[in-house]
Design goal:
This protein folds into two domains: 111 residues, HUPs (Rossmann fold); 151 residues, Rossmann fold (3-Layer(aba) Sandwich). The chain has 292 residues and is of the alpha/beta class. Strand 1, helix 1 and strand 2 form a beta-alpha-beta unit. It is globular, with a radius of gyration of 20 Å.
């Protein structure tokens, strides 16, 4: 099977060096195998997505010297796929309406009888009513159904098997009150629809993969291989992110930094200390090693 990877940013802000590293890893994995690299814009969050960010993302990828196959895909054009998946899961009796507010959930998670790591199932089994609600997956029922045929729901990361731990994630949201699908549902459906064979993304999404593997089993979708990489850190050891002051790729472009030099530095295992017009050779920060 030909290798197919993807880079799927959300247009809710501008890309930074961490995004660049993930995009380069996905791009290079596909190109080294003679496969295909896709770009997908995850713009399902209509309240935060901005068209202007889409154009900036495309310019950033071109600046880095990356090329992709096929037209750029948009989640906002695929809502019928998510609706069909939700309908199928509802027909299995695996979804329930959740009317809880974020404040109510936070209170439940910090209750004195003992904090829990996931949604405690407050609305599971509650009578339906005419009120705003999200749709949650009854995880215990979902895992039981998915494993009934002998599937242990394990998955592969960097070539090694990982035991599934979806139950620890609790009853995750699959459709929000303000969006037709959550990240969990949309990314699972999209990767299958686009034929993605290898998912390259940060280790911060490692736990979410347990959930995605359950959804793949329930919806009879193909199972890719995952490549979760560590997150880039700066010279201070902090994760490179916008909230920690990491420069955006757009700002670097505007300052005259050579995008090809930035990409080369990341490929060589350096987080470049960016200055206007050039990328110095001195190491600043850490690029995670990626197993062959």
């Amino acid at each position: 099977m030909s290798v197919v990877t993807r880079f799927a940013p959300s247009p809710t802000g501008r890309l930074h060096m961490g995004h660049a590293f993930s995009a380069i890893r996905a791009h290079d994995l596909a190109r080294a195998a003679g496969g295909r690299f896709l770009v997908r814009i995850e713009d399902i969050d209509g309240t935060r997505s901005r068209a202007g960010h889409v154009a900036t993302i495309i310019d950033d990828l071109i600046w880095l010297g990356l090329t992709w196959d096929d037209e750029v895909a948009f989640q906002s054009a695929r809502l019928d796929l998510y609706g069909a998946a939700l309908a199928r899961l509802r027909s299995m009796g695996l979804l329930y309406r959740c009317y809880c507010t974020r404040a109510e959930i936070a209170d439940a998670l910090s209750a004195p009888h003992g904090a829990v790591a996931a949604y405690p199932g407050t609305c599971r089994g509650a009578a339906a009513r005419d009120a705003p609600h999200c749709w949650r997956l009854d995880m215990a029922a979902a895992v039981a159904r998915a494993t009934a045929t002998g599937d242990d729901l394990s998955w592969t990361d960097h070539g090694g098997r990982v035991a599934n731990a979806a139950l620890a994630q609790g009853d995750v949201v699959l459709a929000r009150k303000d969006a037709p699908a959550s990240y969990h549902l949309a990314v699972t459906v999209d990767d299958a629809a686009q034929g993605v064979t290898d998912v390259v993304r940060g280790v911060d999404l490692f736990e979410a993969t347990h959930v995605h593997r359950v959804l793949q089993a329930l919806l009879n979708l193909p199972v890719p291989q995952w490549w979760h990489h560590d997150l880039l850190t700066g010279a201070d050891g902090q994760r490179l992110a916008k909230r920690h002051g990491a420069p955006t790729l757009a700002a670097m472009r505007a300052a005259g930094v050579d995008g090809a030099a930035v990409a080369a530095a990341l490929r060589a295992g350096r987080v470049p200390e960016v200055r206007a017009g050039r990328v110095p050779e001195t190491r600043a920060g850490r690029v995670p090693e990626v197993p062959a």
